[in-house]
Predict the structure.
Amino acid sequence: MIYYFSATGNCKYVAQTIASELGERAESILEASADIHLAKDEVFGLVTPTYFWELPTVVREFLEKVEIECTGDNYSFVIATFGTTPGCTGEDARRLLKAKGLLLDAAYSIRMPDNWTVWFDLSDPEKVAKQNQKADETLKKVLGKIRKKEQGNHQALRVPYLMRTFTDKAFSSARMTSNLYLEDSCIGCGLCAKNCPVAAIEMQDGKPVWVKEQCALCFGCLHHCPKFAIQYGNGATKKHGQYTHP
Ligand SMILES: Cc1cc2nc3c(=O)[nH]c(=O)nc-3n(C[C@H](O)[C@H](O)[C@H](O)COP(=O)(O)O)c2cc1C
Ligand code: SF4
Ligand code: SF4
């Protein structure tokens, strides 16, 4: 089984491609059972975005609550999609899975369009298409390594696990929902509230309201809004466009 979390489609695409090539199934962790029973020789894969050099909180919480029963013959890997660096996501996943009795065989990474549009400009469709073409090339290579059941951490540009001391703090303050705001163009369709993975948005009097102090900061609401009415921070996101994997 290939598990994934995906707000804007990069990880969903990678998980579904790998699953179909390996004859496995891909499943979103938001719909997955917390009891995983791996059959003999079944592959365990996890495809996750990188947030602030770490695993997204949604993924961390999934790995903390899940119970995994494995046979000892299961090849297991994590793939972090990323824009600039996958940070310590591989080591992060390795530690969390080890606590569940699953020894991670390999960690990989695939550079893809960076949906942290506070900094990164995804407004040029040609540039974005090129980034996705390159990602496809890396995906093929990763798939080759998975087929050979390679071992070890193959992630590009990783940072020491120790860095989590700093990134945790930055991520925690970035996740304050007070950083997200609504523009007048909102038509009250409710899509953002329906799809928020942590139910941080509720519709009140026909408009979305952030009802939790912190959220997962997945940027799904910002990138999927049909009116691009959700922005973040100083509003640089407005210039940098919306992104979803084609
Ligand atoms: C809050 C946030 C933080 C991010 N932090 C990083 C990061 O530290 N390093 C990086 O390379 N990419 C970072 N990204 C980019 C995503 O990891 C990348 O675009 C990923 O492929 C998105 O996956 P998805 O489309 O499946 O949601 C960040 C994105 C968000 C929304
Ligand atoms: S998805 Fe956009 S338009 Fe729809 S309710 Fe949310 S903010 Fe408004
Ligand atoms: S409020 Fe938006 S950014 Fe935060 S978790 Fe929900 S969908 Fe993601």
About this structure: The pocket of iron/sulfur cluster (ligand 3) is lined by residues 196-198, 200-201, 215-221 (CB under 6 Å). The chain has a mean pLDDT of 96. The longest strand covers residues 76-82.
